[in-house]
Amino acid sequence: MSKAKVDKNEFYSRVIQLLEQANKSVHFYSISCCFGFYSFGIKNFEHVLASIRDRVKLKILGKYLDVRVMVKIDPDNSMDVYAAERLASLQERYAHAGENGQKRDIFRELTESSTIQFLIIDDERVLASNIQEEQYNEDLDLVLNVSQPGLEFERDDDKEEFQRLDKLFESAWDVAIPLEQKKPRFSRRRLRSTLESYSGIRPANSEREFQLMLMGYLKGQIHPSIIDAEATLVDTRIDLLVGPKPHAQRSGIEIKFKPTDRDVDGIVGKLRNYRQNVDDLVLVVGAPDFTPQGRGRLAAELKAINVPLIELR
Question: In terms of pTM, does the model score above 0.70?
């Protein structure tokens, strides 16, 4: 192929197409941690990230692809910080998949100053964007990258330029900083959704068994390092605490199995006690045996202390 211009409105869709075609290596050098989703919406970031994830987990002839991505992170830009968290989470999920038992190094933070971003696929094809301008948006209080048109070519189309970009990538990678392996964020909204999706209630025969089953399920959905069972809160214990410390910023989960109307006052009393030490609380009840009146009273009490009720049957 000869060199081909890529319109700025097509640049990221072409990035995704090339990522999906990679069967050997992906080398992505980006001046934006968010891959320019400011210009085209967060869906753009989601789609690019999903395409990178698919290449990261792909094996061909028993070997993972060489996927390495460098990004520039502006610590004062909340969108960049969020994007970096998502990349670090992806890194942690697949770090074990390196060669010869070594941890896999997928994402690094670009430390050098640069105005170009490019993608090299299978050591053969290049997609590079022109210099991206930056504009400050006063309403958002963010500096936004303005998307620019790009240029696509193969190694044989311009060997000198290909070698320049390839060398730039490798030299920058050597001095780039590995993304910090932070404990993954787990939003309250996602925690609620995860709990509501649990479907293993039927085999449980006791509250303790239900607690263990639910905890095992959550550990499969959430990083185990941010889950504590029977966690101490001053002078009491709560069934589960989820999220990075300190406790006050974590989500507390009280678990009950086959509760009846007689248990309502005790449940609410416990939750009021927990509230002194934990800001976010959730009540999960398995196979509830409330009367309509009992459930209505529990719902009213929980509403008063802002504790959502999740019923699993």
Answer: no
